[in-house]
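#help-structures
NK: newbie question, is this the right format to request a structure? protein is Response regulator
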Amino acid sequence: MSDSPAIEQTVFVIDDDEAVRDSLGMLLRTAGLQVQLFKSARAFLKRFSRECSGCLILDIRMPVMSGLDLQDELYKRRCRIPIVFLTGHGDIPMAVRALKKGAFDFIEKPHDGQRLVLATCHALRADAEQRYGMSASLHSPPDLAERLALLSVREREVLAHILKGRQTRAIAEELCVSVKTVEFHRSRIREKLHVGSLAELFWLFMTNGVQGLRRDEYPPVVASEEE
């Protein structure tokens, strides 16, 4: 269970490449985030309002209306929703320009899934702080080592696979257990680490400087804990 207040936030993905758009949607939904996909900046503007809470994952180069054009339009509408730009190798000067104009972050294509999820979580947190005055401390559960110590050996094995971005079925096959067993362990992991979603889980470990878990890094198991 998460300690932070429940806030309805959406990640708006805007990219004219259908394959990229669908891939991003799947990645972010797997991380437990609410996602809406748009094939163009204009399609997004038809549906968007300033009251929408969340962040944008925005391709910097698109036909008709580019990502930079959309950024300008949102600012004209006095909308400060955080924007994470997706850029190609030759688009760095454009990305720097976007950052100077207030963009939250930019990520080069082909994107690294873990970094994209982390950047998205940071952008959502920034939006929540901006809109609702939430303190960053609400998103920073203390005593990570103590919480990890509550996990069973099996739960830590499942956690290590989750942090590598593996799906439930793949984890089940690797550990030779059922999908339902993995789902049960995932639920217990979220409960013990006090996170409400996979996105919060990734954010918790990345902000604590932990990219993944090796067996020799696991804290001691609590004696009374069962697998």
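mod (FA): yep, format's fine, and the tokens are attached above. Confidence is low (pLDDT under 50) at residues 1-5, 135-142, 214-227.
NK: thank you!
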